[in-house]
Amino acid sequence: MNMKGTAMLQSVRPGAMPTHLQATDARPATLGDPRTRRLHLAVLALGLLWLLFWYRDTFLAMVGIWDRSDTFAHGFVIAPISAWLVWRRRHFIDHVPIAPSLLGICAGLVAGAAWLLGELASVDAVSQFAFVGMLVGFVWAVMGSAVVRTYAFPIGFLFFMVPFGEFLFPTMMQWTADFIIWAVRASGVPVYAEGFLLVIPSGRWQVVEGCSGVRYLMASIVVGSLYAYLNYRSTQKRLLFVAASIVLPVFANWLRAYGIVMLGHLTDNRLAAGADHLIYGWVFFGIIILALFWIGSRWQEDEEEA
């Protein structure tokens, strides 16, 4: 006992802190001082508010589209969901180094240049994507690459705020019309088609933007991406589920449109007309999404630990 005590005393020089105490009390240098970390968070909050104010016209243009179009109404909930995703992983921030990033500064500058090009060319989608890119670039520049990697999905999820996908309307309308024509004829009902106008013995039907399925596709991609992130840790499973969330609503919309036409035909247009058209569509789509989630739950994985 005395010999062990002597050996310990010999390893400590006068005026020096014992080695074992140094290892226990020292805070990892890469994590930084708590006050410095709070300063980074304060700069981040003020900087994001400044960007929202300075580029408010671009942001308000996005909000206007969310308000006018059911297809992009999900834009209202993207930022709150992103904030919630960060909050639920808030304990990770204590284990991640925070430091300014030159790559983040470069990304922000590139996004700023893209925004300017979008404004000069009057291409709203480019300006809006670039605006979100500037927000992401600023987070990266202030908080550093390690933080961005840790919160990659919540940060990237913000890009769903951009009302993007209107170019899909003509193509998906045509796909829907082609499927209705094929399916109705396969059901023994004659169809005359001219463009998006379909004529059957019981009446006329026209495939419009609301029939294209773009709104279902956008909603499915957002919800499917969120579900995959929350329930899977494997990148492969996440990608497969997102792919299913893209493919399934397209086929589901075809069946929905066909079902509405046949329901109207078989009931002499007493059902599946007017508001019923949209109600039946959303109910059918909801059933499909719930089925997708039920299947996806069979491969659910445990949540990642800090």
From TrEMBL:
Bilayer disposition of the protein: Multi-pass membrane protein
Protein's recorded name: Exosortase A
Key word Cell wall biogenesis/degradation present: no
Gene Ontology CC terms, in alphabetical order: plasma membrane
GO biological process, any: proteolysis
Domain of life: Bacteria
Keyword Membrane: yes
Record-listed E.C. numbers: 3.4.22.-
InterPro entries per UniProt: EpsH-like, Exo/Archaeosortase_dom, Exosortase, Exosortase-1
Predominant cellular place of this UniProt entry's protein: membrane
Upper taxonomic lineage: Bacteria, Pseudomonadati, Pseudomonadota, Betaproteobacteria, Rhodocyclales
Pfam families: Exosortase_EpsH
